[in-house]
Amino acid sequence: MDWKLLLIGLGLAFFLEGVAYAVMPEGFKKLLVAASQQPAAKLRVMGLTMAAIGVAIVWLVQVSFGA
Fold first, then answer.
1. CA-CA distance, 63 to 33, in Å (whole number)?
2. By the 8 A CB rule, do 5 and 65 touch?
3. In the chain, domain spans
4. 49: burial class by Cβ within 10 Å (0-12, 13-18, 19+)?
5. 1 pLDDT above the threshold of 80
6. b/e code 26-44 from CB counts within 10 Å (16+ = b)
7. Alpha-carbon distance 43 to 50, whole Å?
8. What's the rounded Cα separation, in Å, for the pair 29 and 35?
C-alpha cells in the first residue's frame, strides 16, 4: 500500500471540507439540520454509496494512470 497516496487523499478531503465550511457556513448548518432529520438507514445508504464512489474513483485513477 502506498501510504503517501493515502495521506495525500486524506489531506485533500480535509482541504475540501474546510473550504466548503469556510465559503458557505450557513449552508452547511442547514445541511446538518436536514441530515439530522433523516432516518439512520437512509444516511447509512448514502454514506456507503459515497464510499463506493470514492473507492471506484481511486481504482479508476490507479488503473488509468498507474499511480
1. 39
2. no
3. 1-36, 39-67
4. exposed
5. no
6. eeeeeeeeeeeeeeeeeee
7. 10
8. 10
- The DSSP secondary structure of the chain, one letter per residue, reads --HHHHHHHHHHHHHHHHHHHHH-HHHHHHHHHHHHTS-HHHHHHHHHHHHHHHHHHHHHHHHHH--
pLDDT band at residue 66 under the 50/70/90 scheme: confident
Instruction: Report the alpha-carbon distance of residue 67 to residue 57 in Å, rounded.
Output: 13
C-alpha cell at 62: 490507479
pTM score, whole prediction = 0.70
